[in-house]
Amino acid sequence: MAAASYDYDDAPGYEEGVGSRTAPTDLGYDPNFVPDSVKTFVGHLYRHIREKNVYEIHQMYEGSFQKLSERMFKETPWPSVDAVSAYVDNDHVFCLLYREMWFRHLYARLSPTLKQRIDSWDNYCSLFQVVLHGVVNMQLPNQWLWDMVDEFVYQFQSFCQYRAKMKNKTDQEIALLKQFDQAWNVYGVLNFLQALVEKSMIIQILEQEKEGLGDFTANDGYSYSGGSNVLKVLGYFSMVGLLRVHCLLGDYHTGLKCLQPIDISQSGGVYTSVLGSHIATVYHYGFANLMLRGYVESIREFSKILLYIFKVKQYHQKSPQYEQILKKNEQMYALLALSLSLCPQVKLVAEDVNTQLREKYGEKMMRMQRYDEEAYALYDELFSYACPKFITPSAPSFDEPLVNYNQDAYRLQLKLFLYEVKQQQLLSGVRSYLKLYSTISMGKLASYMEVDEPTLRSILMTYKHKTHAVSVDGKIISNADVDFYIDDDMIHVVETKSAKRYGDYFMRQIVKLEEMIHEVDKVRFD
């Protein structure tokens, strides 16, 4: 039977298994028992990896692994790597890949112990060391390589959250934390990601592409000349991983700097080849810009990705990541609502996205414009719902009494964000007056706002400052929908006018007309 047509679900499981061990008669988990379906799965996966058959690897990774997990390992881990190694020639690299999947399944289905968290860190260290310093001659699907980086950062985040809850830690857990103090160390995590970026030379590869050389993006990172895509694609996705880690730490400028080699404004980058990567990249990119007052960039990119998800999410309903896609979708709508409340540039938002946004947050966005206590509570609510799970990367204090500090980083970021919102309160009044005039004298505007002229100058300077931001490459970018300049004592207002987009409107009307014609055709007249 050809490997391609083999259905791993049909292989005998626990009940029929005739392996080297007897199937366990109780419901307990035996890490050394390998059902026949798992032997077949690892054997075929190993062969496909050796043959660089990316299509079959992807089918087994995305399909068979998920089906076997659902059918046989819903509440237990997979068999241990020691138990399956005999069926894959004790291949060191394959065993590292298998353990990476083993731990990922454990995190997704069960609750890992502290020892398992540490063991997973050791496995990532070994795996990345092989990729960085060994000769890895294989091709893996982009989905798997993205999942490696994504899970690596997730487990780091999860460990920091776990470690920060010191209050109920047992003496044994505290002893382990002290003994393995380098496990999931923030410098170790950042160093591995940075090393993958540098060793892969991905930045130079992307630079060459701008000059018309190379085909990394055109081939979605795959090598069709018999080489390996593993280091290059891991290096590429590690730039997204670095952005995510720095966002978790609250260092948004450095995060955006790490992502700079990837041109987000251009569609078709390798990061879009995996939906999870596409969403994670734009989510963290948009959030970092929101926190750095790059509201226009946030609005533009959130609108694009939300429109994309709106169109394609129906095709991912059977994907194991479907729930995560929907959650990130809802969070990005909340972040878009925050961005538009602070920078009302609705013209940047696609009409389908704007319709969805008004259904979800229209009423709240109206209330957020008042800048009263209720408005601040809404800003707090949306930020808390949509922000990343911030972490404190430093080692805990083991002094008694032990306290939880897992919320400290989040509270700090929320405080900084709300402080920025309160500073925007003054600007809403200035903006509304400026929209009414093309020119107005300083004295007249000061009297309208009931302040003296020196105070008005200070407010106008604040408006200029808060509606402009500095990009990662040092350019000053404007977020203002209404801008101005002062000549002597006259304020000259410049309102940005966007080109009207008629195409979307006519397309929607055409679709509505076709639906009506279809409905009319169904009607039968007696």
Automatic annotation (TrEMBL):
<comment type="subunit">
    <text>Component of the eukaryotic translation initiation factor 3 (eIF-3) complex.</text>
</comment>
<dbReference type="GO" id="GO:0005852">
    <property type="term" value="C:eukaryotic translation initiation factor 3 complex"/>
</dbReference>
<feature type="domain" description="PCI">
    <location>
        <begin position="301"/>
        <end position="500"/>
    </location>
</feature>
<dbReference type="Pfam" id="PF10255">
    <property type="entry name" value="Paf67"/>
</dbReference>
<comment type="function">
    <text>Component of the eukaryotic translation initiation factor 3 (eIF-3) complex, which is involved in protein synthesis of a specialized repertoire of mRNAs and, together with other initiation factors, stimulates binding of mRNA and methionyl-tRNAi to the 40S ribosome. The eIF-3 complex specifically targets and initiates translation of a subset of mRNAs involved in cell proliferation.</text>
</comment>
<protein>
    <recommendedName>
        <fullName>Eukaryotic translation initiation factor 3 subunit L</fullName>
    </recommendedName>
</protein>
<keyword id="KW-0648">Protein biosynthesis</keyword>
<keyword id="KW-0396">Initiation factor</keyword>
<keyword id="KW-0963">Cytoplasm</keyword>
<dbReference type="GO" id="GO:0001732">
    <property type="term" value="P:formation of cytoplasmic translation initiation complex"/>
</dbReference>
<dbReference type="InterPro" id="IPR019382">
    <property type="entry name" value="eIF3l"/>
</dbReference>
<dbReference type="GO" id="GO:0003743">
    <property type="term" value="F:translation initiation factor activity"/>
</dbReference>
<comment type="similarity">
    <text>Belongs to the eIF-3 subunit L family.</text>
</comment>
<dbReference type="GO" id="GO:0033290">
    <property type="term" value="C:eukaryotic 48S preinitiation complex"/>
</dbReference>
<dbReference type="InterPro" id="IPR000717">
    <property type="entry name" value="PCI_dom"/>
</dbReference>
<dbReference type="GO" id="GO:0016282">
    <property type="term" value="C:eukaryotic 43S preinitiation complex"/>
</dbReference>
